[in-house]
Structures are given as structure tokens and as C-alpha cells.
Design goal:
The chain has about 250 residues and is α+β, with helices and mostly antiparallel strands. It is built from 4 helices and 7 strands, in the order ααββββαβββα. α1 packs antiparallel against α4 (about 170-250).
Length: about 250
């Protein structure tokens, strides 16, 4: 019964320690992995926006008419899947001049309509309209005060020799689904590894406990044998002493 209680308390102690350490470790790993995932997405958007901006800039440098360039860009991006990500182009006043959805063309971005913040800093946000008008290169998460619109990953890259700016978008809902899948994988690995650690620890404790008990039993058996031998020796000595005393009495008579 005492052994069962010992193993039970050992199991509870190991499980508690593994759970606490594993929980905080998993939370930290998920946070780091999420930030890295978002940074990779921003780098991808940055590369896409830069390449697109360089393409537009080269067409302008080759003397192609601005309207022709706009038509070429619109033709190349129109109809692309905006659920995963897309590229569009604004002018200096915040008006969209190219967009995969033609109905978006001509719509103006107003001040305080949305803000762009960095991944690791949710306090300092910059007005998206201000970034457009200042032709500022920046990447981050674009938030909307209007709850009907979801946040998105965005990267802005100005086009040289023009007042245009390319914006590469990435659907953050899709990214969140991938992050949730990542969290699930972390949780699964955490549970399996924790269960394995607890089981192996318990088996190790039982093995060491049994080994220690067997060692003690062997020592006790050896001590018992020595005690028995000493008892026999004492008995023999007592018998010998009695015999000697008896012989001495007989010799005296």
C-alpha cells in the first residue's frame, strides 16, 4: 500500500512539473513561431511589391505612356484570387488605380480609415493614408477600425519616377488558419512528449526503487544469516562452557 502511494505521488509530482514547464515552453514557441511566420509573409510581400514596382518603373523609363502602363498592370492582375493575396496600386492621393477587382478602382483611401503597425509593436501605428501620401516604404499588419473588414498583411513600395505606390496584400485569415494548425501541431507534440516523459520517469523511478529495495533485502538477508551464525556460535560457546564446567566438577570429585 505504501509503495502504491509513493508511485501515485511520484506520478502526480512529475506530471505537474512537466505540465508547467511544457505549457510555458509551448506558449513561448508558439509566439516565436507566429512572429517568424508573419515576418516571412511580410518579406514575401516586400519582395513581390518591390519586383512589381521595378517592373512598372522600367516600363515608365522606356517611355511607355502612363495610361498604357496602368492598363498593362490592370490586365495582369485582374481576376487574381484575392482570398490568398494580391497586388494593387495607388496614386499619391490614396486612390486605387489598379486592383484585381475592377469595382475597387477609383475608390479613395481616407485618413484614419486604417492603420499599419509592425508585428512586434501593437502600440505605434501609422495611418495608412499618410503612408500613401508620403510614399513611405513600410510593411506590417493593416488594421481597420471598421469591424466588418479583417486585418491583413501589407507591404508598400513606391514606384520610382512616379507618384504611384505598389501595395502587396496577404489575407490574414488564411494566415491565422495556418497558425492555428501550427498551434495544434505544437499541442499534439507537447501532449505526446509530456506523456512519454511522465511514463518513462515513472518507470525509471519504479526500476530504481525496486533495485534499491532488492539491494536492501540482500543486505538484510546477509545480516540475518550473520545473526543466525552468531546465535549458533553463542549456543556452541555456551554448550562448550557448560561441558567444561561439568568436567571440572567431575574431576574435583
Amino acid at each position: 500500500m505504501k509503495k502504491d502511494n509513493l508511485y501515485l505521488f511520484t506520478l502526480l509530482a512529475i506530471s505537474t512539473i512537466v505540465f508547467i514547464i511544457g505549457y510555458f515552453s509551448m506558449a513561448y514557441m508558439v509566439k516565436v513561431s507566429t512572429n517568424q511566420f508573419l515576418e516571412i509573409q511580410i518579406e514575401s510581400s516586400k519582395r513581390e511589391a518591390r519586383e512589381f514596382a521595378e517592373l512598372v518603373s522600367s516600363q515608365l523609363e522606356n517611355g511607355i505612356d502612363r495610361q498604357t502602363v496602368i492598363n498593362n498592370i490592370q490586365k495582369s492582375i485582374e481576376g487574381t484570387d484575392i482570398e490568398s493575396g494580391f497586388v494593387c496600386m495607388f496614386d499619391w492621393s490614396g486612390v486605387e488605380i489598379c486592383h484585381p477587382d475592377p469595382q475597387k478602382i477609383g475608390k479613395k483611401t481616407n485618413p484614419d480609415e486604417s492603420y499599419v503597425r509592425s508585428i512586434d509593436n501593437e502600440i505605434n501605428s501609422e495611418d495608412f493614408y499618410g503612408l500613401l501620401t508620403n510614399k513611405k516604404q513600410k510593411g506590417g499588419i493593416r488594421d481597420f477600425p471598421n469591424e466588418d473588414r479583417n486585418s491583413e498583411i501589407i507591404y508598400l513600395y513606391p514606384v520610382n519616377n512616379s507618384d504611384w505606390i505598389i501595395a502587396a496584400h496577404a489575407n490574414i485569415n488564411k494566415i491565422e488558419k495556418q497558425i492555428e494548425k501550427l498551434k495544434f501541431n505544437f499541442l499534439l507534440v507537447y501532449l505526446l512528449s509530456s506523456a512519454t516523459i511522465v511514463l518513462l520517469s515513472l518507470l525509471t523511478v519504479r526500476f530504481l526503487g525496486s533495485y534499491y529495495e532488492n539491494t536492501l533485502e540482500l543486505k538484510n538477508e546477509k545480516l540475518s544469516e550473520e545473526v543466525i551464525n552468531l546465535s549458533k556460535m553463542n549456543t556452541d560457546l555456551y554448550n562448550l562452557k557448560s561441558k567444561i564446567s561439568k568436567n571440572a566438577v567431575e574431576d574435583g570429585d
